[in-house]
Specification:
It is a single chain. With 422 residues, the protein is of the alpha/beta class. It has 2 domains: 16-346, TIM Barrel; 357-421, no CATH class. 35% of the residues lie in helices and 14% in strands. It has 14 helices and 13 strands. Strands 7-6-3-2-1-10-9-8 form an 8-stranded parallel β-sheet. α10 (282-294) runs parallel beside α11 (335-346). The longest helix is centred in the first third of the chain and has 18 residues, at 123-140. This is Glycosyl hydrolase.
Amino acid sequence: MTSDDQPGAAPAAPPRFGANYTPSQGWFHHWLDFDLDAVRRDLDAIAALGLDHVRVFPIWPYFQPNRTLIRPRAVEQLVALADAAAERGLDVNVDGLQGHLSSFDFLPAWTQTWHRRNLFTDPEVVSGQREYLRTLAAALADRPNFIGMTIGNEINQFAAGPHPDPDRITEAEAEAWLRQVLDACEEGAPGRLHLHAEYDAAWYQDDQPFTPAHAARLGAVTAVHSWVFNGTAQRHGRDGVATGQHAAYLIELSKAWALDPHRPVWLQEVGAPAPLIPAADAAAFTETTVAAALDCAGLWGVTWWCSHDVSRSLADFPELEYSLGLLTNDGEVKPGGAALARLAKEARAVAPAPRTTALVVDIGPDGGRRSACGPGGPVFEAFARLAGDGVRPAVVLAERVADAGHLAERGITEVVHPSDVL
């Protein structure tokens, strides 16, 4: 589904719990030396936590090294991984355009240097992307455990700074690209949960061409990626209210732009980054973050980043990337993993009470002042202040405050402005 007109279905209940699968052997380079037995061991460990799905990451240049070559063997290996997951009771979401992972960019040679073309607007590049996404989706379309496609991992980072060499586009061009690639996924696997996912610049960065409206209106669900190293933990500390509420804030912020008040939201990435969240505090951070997210209506699920730590034998990762796993590189359950396992086991199909107080976001009809929503901005800080005072705030756009029907459908009975709070 790609329409921004179609009402979303009520989310499955209880919320889904899963992990972003980072292979313990070779990280995502495992596709170059694919070992299905090693994958099975990893999936056994994930399933033992009581999780119900994984998000997996084909590496785009490994799968499509030439614009007109999608390697059949690589596609077969992806299907084998999905089948192994099914044997362990795990559903699978597939990210297509990798894209960007853990500070590394993976782009095919046919988009770079001598063949440099805009990733979002060049007709031949977009045609190649569409064929690739359609091929992956079609290969999995008959698998009952296939959730659907995510277009790519935080691909908006290629469209603006601080990327060192961005492919700059307009908001209109971003929307046109999203519609084309989402349609390709639907052509390959009709009726599955196809979506796109951006990092939080879409919500917080004024000049980011991928906008909150794109995130909240295109695709089958809204995806949010919550990382407190974005200034939140630096400003509020490891145990600050804003730090523990950051994921919930993004979920509620996303609802302000949704046309369907019941559109599901997927907390698709969230993790405990050291040293901002020390290892000794990872379990508490996990519990606080997930509990706050579960207090948001319409939560499709929580997918933790990530399943396994990155091996110290691999070089040049940012330090925090090595220790984000629910499991060690050897498959031992870490305290954060035990906490998520417990939360998954205890999750119930209980709809949260409506959030009757809504914080007003007034950043212009084009969202040009999104920085007001980021850490240190008045919207962000007002939400944190309200949450610290025991209020469960929703968020509403200024232009919808006078829409009584919209407020009633969301259960909102009171609106407050950041200036009323700070």
